[in-house]
Amino acid sequence: MPMKQIKLRRLRMMLNNPFTTSFGTLQEKEFFITEISDDEGRRGFGESVAFTSPWYSEETVTTNYHIMKDFLINLLKENDITHPDDVLEVFKPIKRNHMAKAALEGAVWDLYAKQNNIPLAEALGGTKKEIDVGISIGIKPSVEDLIETISRHVHEGYKRIKVKIKPGWDYDVLREVRKHFPDTPIMADANSAYTLEDLEQLKKLDELDLMMIEQPLAHDDIADHAKLQAEMRTPICLDESIHSLEDTRKAIELGSCKIINIKIGRVGGLTEAKRIHDLCRQHGVDVWCGGMLEAGVGRAHNIALTTLPQFVLPGDTAGSSLYWKKDIIKPEVTVVNGVITVPDKPGIGYDIDDEALESFTVDEEVFQL
Ligand SMILES: O=C(O)CCC(=O)C1=CC=C[C@@H](O)[C@@H]1C(=O)O
Ligand SMILES: [Mg+2]
C-alpha cells in the first residue's frame, strides 16, 4: 500500500453535556486525529480514544502519543503493508497499547478503502445499509433528572437506553426507570464498580428485565464474571476485560458473559475487532459496538464496523450533536428514529471538515514514511 506521510494532530473539544461515570465527570475530550496520506493526495483518518487520565484503561492521550511517535510509526516505516490486516502483525512486538495501535491502524484502513474506491464498511466485509443505535446516559444528579433525560431520548427514537450504575445508584434507580418505561429496552453499565460480595444486590436486578448488565465486576476479570453469570438470569456483557480475540475465546469458554461490547480502540483496531466479531458469530454470542465519546472520525469507524452481521444489538454510536456543538466531519452523524444510514462514499464515508479540524487542533507533527 502506498503511504507517504503521517500527521498526528492533538485536538481538544468541549462536550455539550458533562458525562459522569462511577469514576468521575468528563467535560472536555482530548485525543489524536491520525492522518496517513499517499502520493495521490488521498488521506486516511483515524482517532485515538484514550482519555487524559487512565481511569477506563491504563492508556492516556499522552501514552498514545509516546507509543505512536517512538514505536509504532517506526514500525510502519520499516515494514511493507500490503493490506490493513498486516498492521496488527507489524505492531505485535509492542505489547498492549491497543488504543495507540488502533488510532494508526484505523487511518490505514480508511486510506486502503479510499485507494480501492470502496466504503470502509465494504472493505471490512459489512453488509448492513442501516444500523440501529442506542444511547448511553451518564450518572445524573437525581432520579427525576435521569427520567427526564431518558424520556427525551426515547422520544427521539433511540433503540435502547444505557444507564450508568454504581453501588448506591442501582436497583432503586433502575426500578423507577422501569416503572416509567415498561417497554423500553434498558441496560445498565457498572464500569466494574462491584465485586462478588455484592451478589445479592446484583441478583435483584434480575427482576427488572434488563437487556444486559455491562462489566459489573473488575476491569481485568473474566473468572468471577463466570460465577456471577451462572447466578443471574440477566445477560452479562463484557467491556473493559476484553482486549483481544484470546480474551474473547476464554470468556466464551468460561461462560463469563452472553454478550460482548466491541470497542475498536480497546482491542487494538478494526482487524482484531472483526476477528472477535467472527468468533462471537460462530458461538452465537451477540455483540454491539461500544463508544468512547468519539468525535466524527471515530464515530465513522464505529458505524462501518457495525455493518458486520453479528452486531445484532444497538450500539452506543449516537448522533454527533449529542456530544459536540460542531463535529469535525461533514455531514455530521445524524440519527433518525434510532437508525443511522451508513454512508456509501469511499473510506469512512464522511468528509473531513478541515476548518473545524484546524480550529480544535492544539498541536501537530508530521512524519515521513
Ligand atoms: O456515548 C458513548 O460514546 C459511550 C459512552 C460510554 O458509555 C462510555 C464511554 C467511555 C467510558 C465508559 O464510561 C463508557 C463505557 O464503559 O462504555
Ligand atoms: Mg462500558
From TrEMBL:
Transmembrane domains' residue ranges: none
Catalytic activity from the UniProt record: (1R,6R)-6-hydroxy-2-succinyl-cyclohexa-2,4-diene-1-carboxylate = 2-succinylbenzoate + H2O
Cofactors (names): a divalent metal cation
Domain of life: Bacteria
Binding site for Mg(2+): D189, E214, D239
Documented EC number(s): 4.2.1.113
Biological pathway: Quinol/quinone metabolism; menaquinone biosynthesis; Quinol/quinone metabolism; 1,4-dihydroxy-2-naphthoate biosynthesis; 1,4-dihydroxy-2-naphthoate from chorismate: step 4/7
Gene3D superfamilies xref list: Enolase-like C-terminal domain, Enolase-like, N-terminal domain
SMART domains: MR_MLE
Active site: K164, K263
SUPFAM superfamilies: Enolase C-terminal domain-like (SSF51604), Enolase N-terminal domain-like (SSF54826)
Start and end residues of each Mandelate racemase/muconate lactonizing enzyme C-terminal domain: 143-235
Gene Ontology molecular functions: magnesium ion binding; O-succinylbenzoate synthase activity; racemase and epimerase activity
GO aspect biological process, one term: menaquinone biosynthetic process
UniProt KW keywords: Lyase, Magnesium, Menaquinone biosynthesis, Metal-binding
Family under the similarity heading: Belongs to the mandelate racemase/muconate lactonizing enzyme family. MenC type 2 subfamily.
Role played: Converts 2-succinyl-6-hydroxy-2,4-cyclohexadiene-1-carboxylate (SHCHC) to 2-succinylbenzoate (OSB).
Protein's name in the database: o-succinylbenzoate synthase
Species this chain originates from: Lentibacillus cibarius
